[in-house]
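#onboarding

Welcome to the new folks! Below is a worked example of what a typical request in this channel looks like: someone posts a single protein sequence, and someone else replies with the predicted structure as tokens. Don't worry about understanding the tokens yet, we'll cover that in week two.

Example request:
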Amino acid sequence: MSSLRIIIQACLLTAGFLSSAASAQYSLDSKVELRFDRFYDYQEMSEVLHGLVEAYPDLLTIESIGESVGGRELWLLTLNNAETGPDTAKPAMFIDGNIHGNEVQGAETVLYSIWYLTKSYGEVEKITKLVDSRAFYFLPMANPDGRDIWFSTPGSLRGGIKPTDNDYDGLYDEDGPDDIDGDGQIARMYKEDPRGRYQRDPEDDRFFVRVGREDPPGGWTMLGSEGIDNDGDGQVNEDGPGGYDPNRNWPSDWQPNHIQYGAGDYPFSLPETRAVGEFLLAHPNTAAFQSYHNAGGMILRGPAASYIEYPRSDNRVFEQIQKTGVEMMPFYRAYITREDMYTVHGGEKGWAYEGLGIVGFTNELWTSRRMYGKDERLTAEERTKFRDLLQFEAVYVPYHEVEHPTYGNIVVGGTKKWSGRVPPPWMLEEECHRNFAFTMYHADQMPKTEWGALQVKSIDTGLWEVTIEVTNDRLIPTITEMARQKRIGARDSMLCTTSDEARVVASGTVQSFMPGSKLNAVESKQPWRVWNGSGIGSRSSRLFRFIIEGEGEIQLEYRCQKGGTIRHSVDLAQSGLSAIEDDKSL
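Example response:
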């Protein structure tokens, strides 16, 4: 049994003996105490996830939705309070991280989210209400093979380990980086060269700098990342492991490799992306999406290509959620991928919205602006000072001489892979918490249908007019405009069920409760059901009317795929205009 597993079990055994003084503190105790000033490799993360499920069986379940190219399980956790209904009957949010293997803190942020929600449930009212009314699907390690490369080897891999012929020589993954000096790091190689365009930094000889175009040669040539010519073709590191991008393998706007590098053979050609795709297609109740990447301090939304346009009403939703996000996360920016970054074809968040009608974001975790709390780009000198004074130079590999089989005597050194895209461990927890809090705000903005006003009128002997309001006071509509235009998913519907002594003779929508408000009647052989293909909009409501012949009690039910189902009983004898306060919802 691993030491981490023993720690988890020890925490479970002692959870019931915590002192009353601890419960009086602001910090909440968890049945599984975790540290977020460190990172967890694939095996450790897997054990922690299972430990959380064991500790919180009333809230968490775990399943493998598939295997990676390397045979590692894709662990997905569902967080749901079954006492308030099944997860599939509630608006749900899908949250993943680490789709790029070298963007490791994405997994820690997802893990933190699970940990914080479970320990806060029943203790923090706002979180308890959120968990009771929503469901969450967590996939911490969307690229477990890439994560394993990061932790178990000196290398760093953006994609996965499916063999790929990057240099088109008929061989696969035959020439990747090599740790020549055996120090556990893949650093930079430089060689003395009279015509070289690099020189030792005159102000700090720990570094190399490029000389200006008009300046004389600097005396050194940069050879690239540490490695040798493994296949004897005169090149170094030209065909390492993988060579594709899992975040370019999704169906919406997918383009072949000659247009979009790393796209894969076809959409969902990778087992990891296919597993996520199948899960989301099987869970159409998913109304929000979040993916954690690194780096740069950004909340990204689509579109990701110049020829794609999003409907204005949906853009307003994206913009408002982003606006709140940058208020919650100082030094982050609200960006549109195509305008502020670059073109992406076949991206995950693009498919979530354009293919499934889900409002989603990609957060690029960590920004150097956090180093000094300055909302401006840092200079190279400021970065160096931070690394010297706060990280005690531990992120550097001092340049040293190495004998290279091809280049002869060279120097190897530079910064370690932990130095740039990943926060220092002692800054990780705040990064996790702020991003988690933003994602919970997003989750809270998923549609929440409720009953509004109700009016019952007798319009003739044994003939009743029932007008009912359905509200959605959240930002995200029950059906996004993109979904409506593309006819993605099921339509909303309002149903009226009567007793055997009554029947619905007509139905439709109206604009108001005012006398004379015209019924937009629906001609149907099933007047007891009114289809609503446009849903309930952002912070909006809609009025439905049924004309009923007969007596007794009726049952009203509003169904929406991404907003749940609500029900209410009405006694036709109790006429008048009133507000509904005790709705029954799933």
